[in-house]
Each structure stands twice: as structure tokens, then as C-alpha cells.
Design brief:
Elements lengths: L1 E2 L3 E8 L7 E9 L8 E2 L4 E9 L6 E12 L5 E9 L5 E7 L8 E2 L2
Length: 109
């Protein structure tokens, strides 16, 4: 079982250049978005709930994830970008396949 918090959020990007809103918080959830979680097994599908403020509904935001326990063929730390669309009340729900999102990376030895 892997701690979710070993995945570090590097930064948040907007697809547009304007910064019109802000990220208030991130919560790892089960894939149904009914309960928060602290751990997952590699291969599980989990949800990432992003709380935002002042983003328009329909705006796409990107979240960059870094997994310090995995590397690519050059030895670089695993980094991926996932995205989601702002829904009502400023919430963004992103489904993350923990097996697939870092599939091209290997475990550090």
C-alpha cells in the first residue's frame, strides 16, 4: 500500500495565461468522490478533488504530479500532468488511474 502523500504537487497551471482564480485545496478521494482516502494500492483508480475559487465553470485546470518513488529511463523523477474541468461551486473532480498515470516509469531501486 502506498501513501498518497508521497506524490507531491509541484505546481498548478492554467491552460490560459491569465490567473483569474486560485486553488484552495486538494483531497484524495475514492473514485466515487464519497470518501477521502490516505492510501491506495498501485493500480487502483482514485479521485482527486480540487477546490478552487474564482474560476469560471467549464475552465480547464492542470495539476502536475511528481512521484519520488518512480523514475524514467533517464533516471528522472516521474512527473505527469493531469487535468480537469471546473464544475459548480468551484470543484474539479479528476479520476486518476494510479497504475496507468505513471506506467512509463519504473520503481526506484
Amino acid at each position: 500500500m502506498k501513501k498518497l502523500f508521497s506524490i507531491i504537487f509541484i505546481f498548478f497551471l492554467l491552460l490560459s495565461c491569465k490567473r483569474q482564480g486560485e486553488i484552495l485545496g486538494l483531497t484524495w478521494m475514492n473514485k466515487e468522490f464519497t470518501d477521502s482516502i490516505k492510501y491506495y494500492n498501485r493500480g487502483d483508480t482514485v479521485g482527486l478533488l480540487v477546490k478552487t475559487k474564482k474560476f469560471k465553470k467549464g475552465k480547464t485546470i492542470e495539476v502536475t504530479l511528481k512521484d519520488d518513488e518512480r523514475i524514467n529511463e533517464n533516471g528522472d523523477t516521474a512527473t505527469v500532468i493531469i487535468s480537469g474541468v471546473v464544475e459548480r461551486k468551484g470543484l474539479v473532480k479528476i479520476i486518476v488511474d494510479t497504475g496507468g498515470v505513471f506506467a512509463e516509469y519504473e520503481d526506484k531501486e
